[in-house]
TrEMBL record:
Family annotation (InterPro entries): PFN (IPR048278), PFN_euk (IPR005455), PFN_sf (IPR036140)
Gene Ontology CC, one term: cell cortex
Entry's family note: Belongs to the profilin family.
Protein name in UniProt: Profilin
Subcellular location: Cytoplasm
CDD domains listed in its UniProt record: PROF (cd00148)
The protein's role, per its UniProt record: Involved in male fertility. Required for manchette development and acrosome biogenesis during spermiogenesis. Binds in vitro to phospholipids, including phosphatidylinositol 3-phosphate (PtdIns(3)P), phosphatidylinositol 4,5-bisphosphate (PtdIns(4,5)P2), phosphatidylinositol 4-phosphate (PtdIns(4)P) and phosphatidic acid (PA). Contrary to other profilin family members, does not bind to actin in vitro.
One BP annotation, GO: cell differentiation
């Protein structure tokens, strides 16, 4: 997991526009660094529900901005959450007030593209 932690730090956290990040391995739903398996069910079972109702994460309600089979974008006042699905992983990133959502989205999507080609 040290390589994964390095990727999260280097590609996401160091942008200063990603507050927290996690990687969920779809095969066994193991999560680094915390348990967030609700995202795998969001993509595979509840995508329509997420679009309509949003998602509760860490005791906050996030409204859906956009959701498709590859990415979910959610917002809560001055906070946001992005989940990107690859064939083998779901990457999750959050941002907070003072951070640029567009930079967070770009960072998580680029890391998702990297995982599409490198970790299939």
């Amino acid at each position: 997991m040290n390589q994964i932690q390095s990727l999260l730090n280097d590609c996401l956290i160091r942008t200063k526009h990603v507050e927290h990040a996690a990687i969920i391995k779809l095969k066994d739903e193991s999560v680094w660094p915390q348990n967030a398996s609700l995202f795998s069910s969001a993509f595979f079972k509840n995508l329509l529900h997420i679009r309509r109702e949003g998602l509760y994460f860490k005791e906050k309600h996030y409204k859906c901005v956009r959701a498709d089979e590859c990415a979910i974008y959610l917002k809560n006042e001055d906070r946001g959450l992005i989940a990107v699905k690859t064939e083998s992983y779901i990457l999750v990133a959050t941002y907070c007030e003072g951070m640029y959502p567009s930079v967070c989205v770009e960072a998580i999507e680029k890391l998702g593209n990297y995982f599409m080609y490198m970790y299939v």
